[in-house]
Write a structure and sequence with these properties.
Elements lengths: L8 H15 L7 H8 L3 H13 L3 E4 L5 E4 L8 H9 L21 H17 L2 H12 L5
Helix pairs in contact: 1-3, 1-4, 1-6, 2-3, 4-5
Length: 144
C-alpha cells in the first residue's frame, strides 16, 4: 500500500542530490556522478540541478573538473527550500479529488489540512545537514 505522501520524482531527485552534495567534502560533483550514485537519468537530474541553481541553493562550475556544490552550508538550507525550488510554493490542499463539488464540504479537508501543515512544518524545520549527517553515519563516512 503506498504511503499518504507523494513526492514528485523531481523533488525527490533534488532532495537526494542535495544530501549527496552536503556529504561531499572535496570538490564539486558532476551530474554524471550524482546520477550514477542515485541511478537516475542524467538528463532529468540536469534539469533539477538547474532549478536548484536558479533558487540559489547550488553553485556550478563548468569544465572537466566542474560540477555542483552547495551555495550555502547545509545547516543554512531547509528541506522546504529545496522542495519549493523544484515544485513551487506548497499550497493548501483541501480535497484529494480537487473537484469543485468538494469545495467547502469535503469529508477529508480537515485531514488534508493537518497533514499538509505537518509536512510543511517538518520540511521547514529540517536542515539539509540533518539528513547528510544521518546518511554519512549510515555509510560509515564523515559528512563535509
Amino acid at each position: 500500500m503506498p504511503g499518504p505522501l507523494r513526492i514528485s520524482e523531481a523533488a525527490s531527485l533534488a532532495l537526494h542530490a542535495m544530501v549527496l552534495l552536503a556529504c561531499q567534502a572535496g570538490g564539486p560533483l558532476s551530474t554524471k556522478r550524482i546520477s550514477g550514485q542515485l541511478r537516475v537519468s542524467d538528463h532529468h537530474l540536469s534539469k533539477v540541478m538547474q532549478r536548484l541553481g536558479r533558487a540559489g541553493l547550488v553553485d556550478s562550475t563548468r569544465g572537466p573538473k566542474g560540477g555542483f556544490r552547495l551555495a550555502r552550508r547545509g545547516s543554512a538550507i531547509t528541506l522546504l527550500e529545496i522542495y519549493e525550488a523544484v515544485e513551487g510554493r506548497i499550497r493548501e490542499r483541501t480535497c484529494l479529488l480537487d473537484r469543485p463539488a468538494c469545495r467547502g464540504g469535503c469529508a477529508l479537508s480537515g485531514l488534508m489540512n493537518i497533514l499538509g501543515n505537518e509536512v510543511q512544518a517538518y520540511l521547514a524545520r529540517t536542515k539539509l545537514e540533518d539528513l547528510a549527517v544521518g546518511m554519512a553515519r549510515g555509510l560509515g563516512v564523515e559528512s563535509g
